[in-house]
Amino acid sequence: MTLFSKRVEELISESGETVVSLAEIGGINRSTLQRIKSGERLPTSEFFRNLSRALRLSPFEQDELAQLLEIARVGETVSYSRRQIYDLIEMISELTEYKIPFSKEVNRKTGDRENQPVTEPIEICSDPMAVLNQIENSINQELFSAAQPELKLCIPHTESKVYDYIFQQMMGNKKKLNLADVLGFRQQAAADEPGQALAALRHLIALSLLENINYRSCYYYFSPESPVSAPVTALFPYFILTSERVIAISADFNQAVLYRDAAIIDVYRTEFDRLVAKSQTFIEESDDLFRVYTLEKVRHLKHVVEPLPCFSYYIDRELLELKLNKDFPYYQPLLEAAASHYDDFRKESHAMLNVFSLKNLEQFMRDGSLSFPDEVYHVLTPAERLRLVQLVRDDLANDRRNLFAIDDELLFMNGSTEFTNEQDLIRFILHYRKNNQLVFKAIEIHEPSVVAAFDDFFTNMIKSSYVLPKEQTLAELDRLMQQCEV
Predict the structure, then answer these.
(1) For residues 343 and 309, is the Cβ–Cβ distance under 8 A?
(2) SS3 402
């Protein structure tokens, strides 16, 4: 029996019903239900919905059972990765939706040993909580005292509590932080370690979204035979560097030594630079508008998940000349680059899978705004909006494009984020307002296991409950166009 079938058996027992009575209540086949209960087969989506209704499951219970069903279908590793990406999408939307004012100051903790005069250049602690407290105290000291705070981390990706602490301290903080890390991933993850890089990604992306952090993350692979807790080099265990100290940490994170000696700090700085030199970029950021929108190069796009249906198929030179602001200082170079970009896009991306949000499309129908700086273009008129959506609707109705609408009740994705699957990289494109100005940022991830996980998620997404059926999407597009015409 699978975990799913065991849970179904438990829920049937808890309901007080029999297989026969549940079949009558849910209008489902009794023999099929018996085989599902015994683990001989898995239910279809329709059968699952009817069974959930017959069992009178709460939304929480239904979600729990749906996760067990997915594990039974695709395995724990794939299911875990899909859930991680789902949570990541919602986290990015939340962090870009609700902006935290920069008003917080870092305060030293009550009883913090850093309040006391420093008499010893070396401090040793031999307890996991003492190690964590030493790390937190050193982070606070750096943020509190350094003119230009910096942290360099060489710790296991599993030590998420350290990253989470930095995030909590920097969220809304007036200080700016230069942050760099080097992560070690197993070349081939063990069966009990699903999605190492993907698991690390969630708290790393959270840090990269904070505007007061300048963040560079690198990664390298270690041998599949090496234990997860193995030191990153033959000479040193894990370590954390600040501008005036280094914390050397044991492989099991149970012991740590704090050094304030400049010569020892220099040794660790050299070692960190050596590790970076032999590593690859894990998270790479850019706020260059041409790079954000890849105007300098068109890549082959496999999947795009974004707030609006991809209008790039319909943007020609005539529309660009009409909508680009001619008073913009670089109007002509931008026009030429954009026209060439959209021409190349149509040639390269005809088979692209495009998933979009009806909620954000409805906002576009109201205001005509696209994700470009205000000074670059004029918003689209109601007639232009209607024409673009009509083209989208016609292409979907005639199966000329692979278009799918998100079920906004199941997946929260705001208008600030686009996800693209481009050959051997995953790109997040962020555009959101801060102090009435649009912020643009592109985050690229090249690590193969992360790219493969997103590829699976996007491919499966169009067959999942996260997207609406074609007929419902067409009906919603018709509704939006009718509202625009009125």
Answers:
(1) no
(2) strand
Residue 66: exposure state from Cβ atoms within 10 A (0-12, 13-18, ≥19)? middle
Angstrom distance (rounded) from CA 217 to CA 204: 8
Check which CATH number belongs to the domain holding 65 and give it: 1.10.260.40
Among 430, 391, 416, which residue's Cα sits nearest to residue 310? 391
Q: Give Cα separations from 234 to 220, 271, 398 (angstroms).
A: 15, 11, 61
Q: Last residue of a domain, which of 56, 74, 92?
A: 74
- Cα separation, 9 vs 17, in Å, equals 11
Both tokens assigned to 218? 């690198």
Cβ within 8 Å of residue 466, ≥6 positions away:
406, 407, 410, 411
3-state helix, strand, coil in the chain (%, to 5): 45, 20, 35
pLDDT, tens only, 13-33:
999 989 999 989 889 999 999
Kindly state whether residues 325 and 338 are assigned to the same domain: yes
Q: Are residues 64 and 190 in the same domain?
A: no
Q: How far is it, in rounded angstroms, from Cα 330 to Cα 84?
A: 41
Residues 322 and 411 in one domain: yes
The sign of the torsion formed by the CA atoms of 264, 266, 268, 274 equals: negative
User: In Å, how far from its chain's centre is CA 2?
Assistant: 30
The domain tally of the chain equals 3
CB within 8 Å of 364: residues ≥ 6 apart: 308, 370, 385
Do 338 and 235 share a domain, yes or no? Answer: no
Is 305 exposed, middle or buried, given 0-12, 13-18 or 19+ CB atoms closer than 10 A?
buried
449's tokens: 């296991």
Has residue 80 been placed in a domain? no
3 state DSSP class of 438: strand
Range of the domain at 34: 3-74
Query: How many whole angstroms from its chain centre is CA 127?
Result: 34
The pTM (predicted TM-score) of the whole model is 0.78
Residues 240 and 301 placed together within one structural domain of the fold: no
Residues 67-126: tens digit of each pLDDT? 898 889 888 888 888 888 988 888 888 887 765 555 556 555 544 544 555 556 788 888
Is 379 within a domain? yes
* CATH of residue 142: 3.30.870.10
CB 382 within 8 A of CB 484: yes
Inside any domain, residue 378: yes
Do 405 and 269 belong to one domain?
A: no
Residues 219, 234, single domain; the answer is yes
Q: Residues 296, 425: one domain?
A: yes
